[in-house]
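Intended use. Records such as the histidine kinase entry shown here are meant for training and evaluating sequence-to-structure methods. They are not intended to support clinical decisions.
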Amino acid sequence: MDIKLKNRHRISGLLAAAVILAAAFAMVELYPYFENESSRSGAPIYEESAFLKHLVNGNYVLALEDAQKEQNKILSPFQYFLPEAEAELKAASSDGSEKSTVTELSGSSSSNIQITEDEGDGENERTEYLRGLRKNSIREFENWNRDFSNIRNSIDYQMIDENGKVILDHAEGRFIPNNNYYVFQAVLHYDELGRMDITCVRGENTAYLLNTLQDFGDKDPMESYYDDYFQRGTLKLSNPRNMTFAYGMSEQQISSFKDTSGNIWTAYENSGSVTRIFIGLVCAVAALAFLFSCMDVNLADRIAILRTPLELVVGIVAGSVAFGAGLTSLVAVTNRGDLYSALLRANFIPKAADIMVKLWNLLWWAVPFAVIYWAVLCMRDVFHIGITRYYKERTLCGLFCGWVVNSLKKLYRYLGNINLQEKSDRTIFKIAAVNFIVLTILCSLWFLGIGALFLYSVILFFVMRKYYIDLSSKYNVLLKATNQIAEGNLEVVIEEDLGVFEPFKKEIQKIQSGLKGVVDEEVKSQKLKTDLISNMSHDLKTPLTAIITYVNLLKDDHATPEQRKAYIDILEQKSMRLKALIEDLFEISKANSNNVTLDLEDVDIVSLLKEVSFELSDKIEESTIEFRWNLPDEKIILSLDSQKTYRIFDNLLTNIIKYAMPGTRAYIDMRKENDWVEIILKNISAAELTFNPEEITERFARGDQARNTEGSGLGMAIAKSFVELQNGKLTVETEADLFRVIIRWPIM
């Protein structure tokens, strides 16, 4: 059943991803349609305010270009359009050193110094203002030139002097004024004083065009940079004089024109095609989300994000819909080729750039559709759990109301649990009631109540003092008991009634029990340390004594070669025994100090156990113990350290060979249970099992208490430590002479 549920959730996720990506893909594929719709809707380009402003500012660009061509030199905008300011700035720059000298030489009179410095400061400020104005005029002209450059190649324009001669032609020889070839036409004339008049205008809305162009022509484009204090009525942009500028756009030019200043976005917004299709797909995604959610009604129970409160869902949905509607600009930029061009400039190959643009658009469109799908799944639960429960659990209002109701219930239960038969509750109630009655009476006595209140305060003082003394005595009893426990007396008993401190009795008893447990553990630890010394002394002394003995025998000159060879074999055996003991001691020390480095990898534990059994096959045959293997046929892959796991199995199987009763059977079983793999090793012990199963995995603990067999007493301890280091669990069970070891590892 659990597998079916997981598959259902997986299918729901795949369906959601498919619906979201399909909707986003549909939006991206409709980009050509959106472009066609935008081109058929909205006002003509020449009615855009920004476009008309660029035309008027273009007059200054063309005038400066003509002047530079005529004078055959580079002219700055400040020099050409503000000649008086340019002359004043040059004069100020040439006189600057002379004025500073005059200021230094006028030192005979302090008043003269003050006047001269004030005048000098004013002139310096004027000069700085003019320099700033020069920078601003150059920067502003660059903006005019950039904006006009964006449209000049898509329109026809001419400059005509006062005699009607065309001095600059960008109309393929056609005379623009009053030419019916042009759908849009604007002829702007500057008189001898630089005042602009519109002599001809043509378009769909001539009144709007006339007023807008005239407004831009009457306004000084540098006006925002003038300072009222420094201008002094002398600074004004010098407009072209006795010059006419004619602009025209044919039907073909209008249809093919794309203004980079933002007109294309307006056209897309005016068409409304992107928004309409987006809203339609939103409805389709919502309907499909509702339909598919009916196939997996328990999805919200497993995914917390689908239990988001309704108010937050509505707010996020509103934001995502607004976000999706705002992606109209993304459609415009993509259709215009800005993203594609940027990627080409970044050295992307054309095919990769095209794919990147589509993926980028797909990602952004997937966001609002994903939010809509998620919102439907959140709100769909109202049909699954009911509107009442949904209101209580899935809305902020319901959650707040539930919190208020629960708080009131707790208050009600608290008041209801006041037991006037309990001494403490009865006392508090009596004190509160008496205090209320006394204060009520005192308040009714007017001025006499002040004296009565004084008397009441005195009485209350003595009553509270008596209560405080009683409380202090009970506190001292409690403090005395805790001090005795701190000094090591864990058998202290509190027999007095502690009043409000009565609950501390149970807590002190818990502390006593905990400390006793700690003491017992410490005693056990000390015993282990003692056993460590005695056991290691015995286990190391035995092979060491044999080594010393046979070394002395080798020194005997009368020993035959055969005897020497036998002595050497025994020395090798005992030295290897000594080496194994020391290695086991190091292994268990590292394991207990968590200083073991695990080299985790995917290990087939079935194959590993078979490999250990194969390595020990000679010893198994010599032991006369019949091993029965019950291992699964399929692989069981776990994330383990293969060397440490090999050591675990080697130690456990070696113990069976050493301590199992000869001629009996040993069983090694392995099976999977849910998310765990369990390995059970069972054998009949040759000696009576008189030890505690929990102690056999301690360091130097041996089932053979007489120590008649070789062993360090560390095999089980090492096995248990290595199992636990790899997130497993090793337990030992005994039943009569049956010895059982159980290892459990989680399957990741």
